[in-house]
Design a protein that fits this description.
By secondary structure, the protein is mainly beta. The chain is about 10% helix and about 50% strand.
């Protein structure tokens, strides 16, 4: 009975996934370590000149063919000492047996407004993007390929497909606010709207637009003791009739008196879906992050609560500025 229930749940999940995957955007549990995917207004929002971010997510390996998502972004802060920052991001997602693939390339820009004594800033960002989606029908199995005894891939599937991909242009925009109250004490917030153009995404001649996604996030950094900081974070997103709420936080333990070496540990909750844990580390200009999802949805019977691992690496590049030393020339003798 239990095995039959698992099979029924698995079948329902696969059908549901094939429907919902057409209306979902690239998604990371470590949203705070994927800034250009979270909000275009976060382009250039870091301490340094250049930032490189790499993300990788793997999930549902315990249930079906793993869903894999990769991301790579590079952004530059206030280029040529102007209030303009720019960033390039590339994301690749591959899902399910059909190898349903999404390739997204975006090039965004931000205009920064400094307030009062420059402790506060407002970033206004836009992010045009090109997206290519494709599916591999040869990886799918159809009832016409069942010869009465077993599945035969050489048999004609009896299906006619018009297209195996689609390319479209998209646009996102966002505004962020950051307030550096004191050393190791900051608050920030952001609002973003994705898929502003509502592009058509169907592989066929059907009217199926990609729904707009609205998101709000609030974060903070607070000193708890000489060695420990708290980093709370919350994000709410809505896309068509689907909503997501993630809240949680991390603790940061400083290994020295500066900001060059530190350890992180945190816990998060994603409503009606999962709870996940993360650990991280600062080492020089590098930040490393690892998280693992524990599935809490109705799929937990099939997944045995297992979700997936996610990894993030961030590297900040600081331009070298040599110290200018002035020397007073003195005569050898008077």
């Amino acid at each position: 009975m239990k095995g039959r229930l698992i099979n029924i749940l698995l079948f329902c999940f696969l059908i549901l996934s094939s429907c919902l995957v057409f209306s979902q955007d690239i998604h990371f549990s470590q949203f705070y370590n994927s800034p250009l995917n979270l909000n275009p207004g976060l382009i250039g929002e870091f301490k340094g000149e250049f930032r490189i971010v790499a993300n990788q997510r793997n999930q549902w390996s315990s249930v079906t063919t793993p869903y894999s998502t990769y991301g790579l972004s590079v952004d530059a802060k206030r280029i040529f000492n102007s209030p303009i920052s720019t960033g390039l991001a590339v994301y690749q997602d591959k899902a399910g047996d059909s190898e349903y693939s999404t390739l997204q390339v975006s090039l965004g820009g931000v205009y920064t407004i400094l307030l009062k004594d420059s402790s506060q800033s407002i970033n206004i960002g836009v992010q045009p993007a090109f997206t290519q989606r494709s599916i591999n029908y040869d990886k799918l199995q159809f009832d016409n390929q069942y010869n009465g005894s077993f599945y035969d891939a050489n048999l004609n599937n009896g299906e006619t497909f018009q297209n195996d991909g689609r390319t479209y242009f998209n646009l996102s925009a966002g505004v962020t606010w950051n307030y550096e109250i004191a050393q190791r004490k900051e608050v920030g917030a952001g609002i973003a709207m994705h898929n502003l153009l509502k592009p058509q995404q169907s592989f066929f001649n059907e009217n199926i637009p990609l729904h707009q996604r609205f998101s709000i996030n609030v974060n903070g950094l607070f000193r708890i003791s000489d060695k420990i900081d708290g980093l709370p974070n919350i994000i709410w997103q809505k896309q068509d009739k689907f909503q997501e709420l993630i809240f949680g936080g991390q603790g940061k333990y400083h290994l020295n008196n500066g900001n060059y070496r530190a350890l992180y540990a945190g816990i998060w909750y994603r409503n009606s879906d999962a709870s996940y844990f993360n650990v991280g580390m600062d080492y020089g200009n590098f930040h490393f992050g690892i998280s693992y999802d524990l599935n809490l949805s109705s799929l937990k019977v099939a997944s045995n609560r297992r979700g997936g691992f996610e990894f993030a690496i961030i590297y900040i590049i600081q331009r070298y500025r040599p110290d200018l030393k002035r020397y007073k020339s003195c005569p050898d003798y008077i």
